[in-house]
Design brief:
This protein is of the alpha/beta class and 227 residues long. The chain is built from 9 helices and 16 strands.
């Protein structure tokens, strides 16, 4: 397994623009197919090459694990069809005013932590879609947990100001070890600059060697690559 360094649309915030699980990686169409295929190969998954509601902010707007995917209400029919043609799990369009589910939910195949401001019907729908236990919580005292961490089925990396009580909850719900760190030369919003699954991790190109070492320990990926 490897850690790769990359950019998307010239940005190191690759977690904002892409989304990865053990089954798929979603990359916006603006990214050349050759580069999108490279991400697919690194992560050893199927590629979905699409926007979300016409937006390239795929990682911020959508959230997924191996069982399901949450999409904002403004998803377009052709985008939904592109997802359906590749992804075999549950697909739920969240008919709410909230749209940035990638920022609101931190999930793997074992559980999910969500923004405490989400309402009970939304939490129930998230649980049904992702087929996991869903619990409200914060990271570093902040509610937008999806942007503050990255969770795989092997480990979790989150904001360095994680509280002990938050760590305990994350480990209980996601059922994997939790570590703290940064990406892209000190950015604590880990989810904005890192994607990963059980096979590999891809971090923003400004991520330093020491940060890559911590990512490797957290997500159980050890070999470093740059591309």
């Amino acid at each position: 397994m490897a850690i790769y360094l990359s950019t998307i649309v010239g940005s190191v915030s690759i977690g904002v623009y892409s989304l990865a699980t053990d089954k798929i990686v979603i990359v916006p169409r603006i990214v050349p197919l050759k580069k999108a295929e490279r991400l697919r190969e690194w992560l050893k998954v199927k590629l979905i090459h699409t926007t979300i509601g016409g937006s390239i902010l795929v990682g911020a707007l959508a959230c997924a694990n191996s069982n399901g995917i949450l999409l904002p209400h403004f998803i377009k029919e052709e985008e939904l069809n592109a997802i359906k043609s590749t992804f075999e799990g549950n697909i739920t369009i969240m008919e709410t005013k909230k749209t940035a589910y990638g920022n609101l939910v931190l999930t793997n195949d074992h559980g999910a932590i969500v923004d405490p401001r989400l309402k009970t019907p939304e939490i129930q729908k998230i649980s049904e879609t992702l087929c996991v236990e869903v619990v409200t919580g914060e990271i570093a005292g902040l509610p937008y947990v999806g942007s503050l961490g990255v969770a795989t089925n092997k480990g979790v990396l989150v904001h360095p100001l994680l509280k002990d009580s938050e760590r305990k909850l994350l480990e209980e719900v996601l059922k994997v070890p939790v570590e703290v760190g940064t990406i892209n030369c000190g950015i604590p919003y880990v989810g904005t600059g890192l994607i990963g699954n059980s096979y590999a991790a891809v971090a923003g190109a400004m991520t330093t060697g020491p940060e890559m070492f911590i990512i490797g320990n957290a997500l159980d990926v050890v070999k470093e690559e740059t591309a």
